[in-house]
User: What shape does this take?
Amino acid sequence: MEAIKVAILGASGYTGMELVRLLLGHPAAQITAATSRANAGRRIDGVFPRFAQLPGSQLTFIEPDMEAVAASGATVAFLALPHGTAAEYATSLLDKGIRVIDLSADFRLRKASVYEEFYGEAHPAPDLLDTAVYGLPEVHAGAIASASLVASPGCYPTSILLPLIPLLREELIDPSSIIANSLSGVSGAGRKADLSLLFVECNESMRAYGLPRHRHLSEIEQELSAAAGKTIVITFVPHLIPVNSGICTTTTTTLKGDLADVEHALRSTYENSPFVRLLGNEACPDTKNVTRTNFIDIGWQYDERTGRLLLLSAEDNLGKGAASQAVQSFNLMAGLPEMTGLSMV
Amino acid sequence: MEAIKVAILGASGYTGMELVRLLLGHPAAQITAATSRANAGRRIDGVFPRFAQLPGSQLTFIEPDMEAVAASGATVAFLALPHGTAAEYATSLLDKGIRVIDLSADFRLRKASVYEEFYGEAHPAPDLLDTAVYGLPEVHAGAIASASLVASPGCYPTSILLPLIPLLREELIDPSSIIANSLSGVSGAGRKADLSLLFVECNESMRAYGLPRHRHLSEIEQELSAAAGKTIVITFVPHLIPVNSGICTTTTTTLKGDLADVEHALRSTYENSPFVRLLGNEACPDTKNVTRTNFIDIGWQYDERTGRLLLLSAEDNLGKGAASQAVQSFNLMAGLPEMTGLSMV
Amino acid sequence: MEAIKVAILGASGYTGMELVRLLLGHPAAQITAATSRANAGRRIDGVFPRFAQLPGSQLTFIEPDMEAVAASGATVAFLALPHGTAAEYATSLLDKGIRVIDLSADFRLRKASVYEEFYGEAHPAPDLLDTAVYGLPEVHAGAIASASLVASPGCYPTSILLPLIPLLREELIDPSSIIANSLSGVSGAGRKADLSLLFVECNESMRAYGLPRHRHLSEIEQELSAAAGKTIVITFVPHLIPVNSGICTTTTTTLKGDLADVEHALRSTYENSPFVRLLGNEACPDTKNVTRTNFIDIGWQYDERTGRLLLLSAEDNLGKGAASQAVQSFNLMAGLPEMTGLSMV
Amino acid sequence: MEAIKVAILGASGYTGMELVRLLLGHPAAQITAATSRANAGRRIDGVFPRFAQLPGSQLTFIEPDMEAVAASGATVAFLALPHGTAAEYATSLLDKGIRVIDLSADFRLRKASVYEEFYGEAHPAPDLLDTAVYGLPEVHAGAIASASLVASPGCYPTSILLPLIPLLREELIDPSSIIANSLSGVSGAGRKADLSLLFVECNESMRAYGLPRHRHLSEIEQELSAAAGKTIVITFVPHLIPVNSGICTTTTTTLKGDLADVEHALRSTYENSPFVRLLGNEACPDTKNVTRTNFIDIGWQYDERTGRLLLLSAEDNLGKGAASQAVQSFNLMAGLPEMTGLSMV
Assistant: This one.
């Protein structure tokens, strides 16, 4: 089988670097273009010595020139770019017939008005919003398979949505009671020269941030509302933790139904989802078990003293929360088995 | 002024070690006895090279022999021992006229039945429960000053109680809505040879644990109920985070009153509390600002979308959560200024 | 092709766990037996949730019973056991016709007397020493391929030997001038419940240890002497560093020849060695580029002010320093391409 | 006693921040001016919340205006500035009669030509070089006491010089054989927004850097040569390690004299040096025992197999390697006891 030619735009951030790692090793993909303003003209294996001697790592980063991307023969492009920027390139790439998997926030929201509310600027390409598919494969696999534009979810949303969606669909919880506390590794803040991200600033430090209305709330509430069939508003508290990668989310919500129904809803929803591991009642997922994989581990517990259900999830913010989830969508779009190229350990 | 002679029982755990550090440097205290089963016969500066050349660090650890403790002239004893064990020694010390500051859970609960429910064994000295004072100086300063037996609070409870108590007293929040998510450094689990506490196991790992009914819930709910004047039950989710020390707690609760009243309640309650730093609305306390101090930093935010108040606190689990808080009580008991011997930075 | 059945003895330590990871993913191997005294009766995926849902991870750990290992059909056994223990099982396995790759120190030394000198006890199976091959594939590939007993090198030795051997063979350096300073991640100390390995003890800590005569000196000097054709004695200083894995070694030695000859010797020796990456003059290898791989990265610099050559190497102590190197030997023994099953990134 | 008024220039870097911490707590000093280009106009406790509620932390950072510094009444100025910049301000301050403790490299070297060789630019104030005293109190206490300009040593030099100087003076080691391998925490690289210093880049990473001729070599060799009475050239290999602070140095050198003489030389040299802790033969100093103090811990071992002496030292790069050592010099200059304001634990 001939490899599918792919491009990575914004390939020198942490998500971009993880996409490079996964796609260099993907048996059905070939990276033909990788863009990086900061590193244009340098080879991938020069910028990232970790990849030295891997076939394909000798490729040279180019400027984000969509003509050059198209000329490379790429038929699918991964966009690991800041929001706002991504939309501009996506438009151009789609015009050239290149399918786009966008890892930014630009196409995750159905309504341009919500984008403007949460991102503080007018949506850069509102006409494309109807085209885009929210790239959560466990929920939208069919639409992803045929999409020309996939909006890959944010890291926090993935960890919050997957445990909740089956319970909302079955009306097992009180939708007004949802509170999600998430802990994120530092790579989630991106690879940028910022004093607050220095080793010395983050090490031996723990803190909440981005309160009370983190941008990811917009897509979380959109997808929860879709599952519940009505508008849902939640409380979301992200925290920054001194690990390289990983997201650990604890969601509390009032149980309406029976605990056995919770387990049944989760197991039946995900029985064919190879990347969702249901650890069962009383288990506490640990991020160290999912880093560098596309797994999300989910546990749950019932607190009979308060009537609340605790939903516990762990994923890699760069993996199931970003790059490997995008590759999972790519596999669906290419008609490949969902697990192709996604190492399991 | 002659120094007050003090003993530290269980001086080679992390809390004990922090007590040694603080009391070696305390201008009005002199350590005359330090017990450690594991290190009896060895000098403090041999077991903890960090303390070498500090006056007093040449003292030799002894077995936990209460006669020897009394013979050392100690008039106050700090107990940094496992629950169950502490009660036994406390009884003996009190009989000898030695005042006791117990950092274990043994005397924190008013009711032996609650102790049995949460700790799974009969209370070892129920007769002393009426005597004991819960050692949260910001709440019980007067009683602490004259107490013979102080039950110093747990690390999690301190971080949860101080932000909530003023709001419950003023009925500003819905008591049934309280959910506390706490992140703790690894020293909170104690200094014990346990596979799960190894560097390699904890590093690059984040997880919840101890669900759904952590033992500290018992004292948290006792003190919250006392503040509210009625029984309160909360949800509490502790997490283990790869830092040496620190607790970062995010508490969510439904606001009933006005946000301005929240600020007023906190500021008026703590205006004379030198160790409570109110960072104000929209601030996110960071554990790195409080480690090795007796400070607790508190911030708050109102989430108007959900009507919930977010209370954010940061302390050092070994400091305000354990050893330095116990020294604060010691200062009160000795009639010393509250801040004596408690370095502020 | 039918999978080669393999056994892992001592599969629940850090090296054993890495062997499990590699061999679960190895396309030509099947784990048929995994022993662990501590975890006998539990499934691999129960002990190591990271491996859940990987084919093969449902296997149950057994006691180290060599009859059961043989009955599983294993034709190759990996021994990740303490020295002393390994020899006993190796003898039994070899008797049963099972080829052995021993990752302990038991068969690395040619002389039982040196073993006794460095390990403080009589060699447990001196008759086997002539049979064993030192499992450094870049040096002994041919002998490994046909060996029944491979003694896989220690983590420190691998990082020290590979840069030095070509230079000693070519007599480019003064053999009496070799000083190696190595930094190791904490997993190198093993997965054992030991106070000194706790997160809180290791984090924010750096120290030398094991001076002046670390056990690994014995095999380092044996192999260096073999390369030089005369007895070599070196200084070796290991340090413990708060990272999970990785070894960073800086070796200083007086240059006798020309710097260009150094580069030529290294490049010609390793031109067909896929796991040795020569970063060139002035490069400083970083452990983060080699963790979880079988690569060793090597750089060098000449200090003209002192006439000394600096050799810099980085590897994963659990990878090229232990488990993946053992799998590399396995591949040679099985007639497979050297890189089979060894992910490169 | 009236407090001595002091200024800190460059007060918002890591060294500056540590100076702020120490001088806020110093019983005989009062900070009257703190400069920071980046934070001018903001209060110290706003930039560094850790210092909130400490007396003096309400001071507002000013631009580096020497007139304003003088107008604040400061009689001593600490310069925590980049080299090159420091010299310019020092000249102005000295002209105004303000004594200067410079923590940059600008006045550490006796010869402007050596400065130019190692720092790549002409010395900015060569006339002052004769005035400056190298601020290593254990070696130059007398000169420091009366100096108007103290050049406080670099972090690496302090850890290398103190163990070696007594041995060179007594001719106990071969001066041509000195090789120092140092491990530094990340704060040593400064508080600057640089990709290579991000948490994610440094965490789980170990590497050498700055080879083969780190700038600190110039002052190391100058002071070693002074002790030996002849020119000494050494090999120095610094490494970057994922801890916030600390330097761990291992120096190897060929022993000429007797091991007992080594111990005698060290003990007699430092018997009145309260901040040098000689741990004795076979001890391995650990940085965790010295962080946030002005101690340097020194151990040593003789490797009889090679005839080499191993000198092991640990200090805090921001403490004895920078800020607290500068305060130690300040104490000497002010005629205060050497330990004033320097917490010992």
